[in-house]
């Protein structure tokens, strides 16, 4: 794999040098492709346009990111730490730089590419069934995958082959969107995924396999403040399980959603977006880590409850006329 990794480093160097004037664009694209954006941005937007599509987006985002977490347990490297750990560049250091989004933890494959490929397939396939020029959404979809992948290479977060591996998750979008489990099934599934991953993690640790990449990130990240606990693999696990649990509770509480016309839906979207923005900005204590992960889990349990039940319910209460 050394040859593959080395070629990836030189590709990242070339990309940074040739597109240095578009740095802010790459950073914006990588933020848009963040799996967290699927829960806080794409899900509420699609839900208030098409309720079934929105539910599918959240379901596919959670499962695809959870599978990405499982694949990360198979190890891999990230460019920003592999440059130093490999000692292949001691004599000739590549002319590359790091960015605030670079120093994520957890290696291969690319979660950004994986979640983007899965959730946007759900959206473009829905659009393609309504539009006359049905090829247009798929062309935009392909351009988006390429842009997100290049942004991850540009910031030294992933190697090219990791981006390609993540993009294959379009298959997940096709398969998972065909059927979304009911409320009770989602609640049990959330608990099962959480317990199953913890058992697998503890089993690998007992075999002497250290799965934490946080020490490597701390060692080679150029700015310590760029390393955030909410980018750790276990944060992704709590996010996914919390979102599935919240979606299951929301579907049990209000299975068909609230009947809203176009204007109340737009108002619900605006209020939900503001609520999710402040929930995302809510600071969490990083010590002890157990408290952080517990609160992070609860934060994403609230996300579907807020979008599906609480805000539309209040809007329906104030706008409903007998």
Automatic annotation (TrEMBL):
Record-annotated Phosphatidic acid phosphatase type 2/haloperoxidase domain positions: 53-178
Alphabetic keyword roster: Endoplasmic reticulum, Gluconeogenesis, Hydrolase, Membrane, Transmembrane, Transmembrane helix
EC code: 3.1.3.9
GO molecular function terms listed in the Swiss-Prot or TrEMBL record: glucose-6-phosphatase activity
The protein's annotated pathway: Carbohydrate biosynthesis; gluconeogenesis
Chief subcellular location: endoplasmic reticulum
Subcellular location: Endoplasmic reticulum membrane
Protein name according to UniProt: Glucose-6-phosphatase 3
Provenance organism: Mola mola (Ocean sunfish)
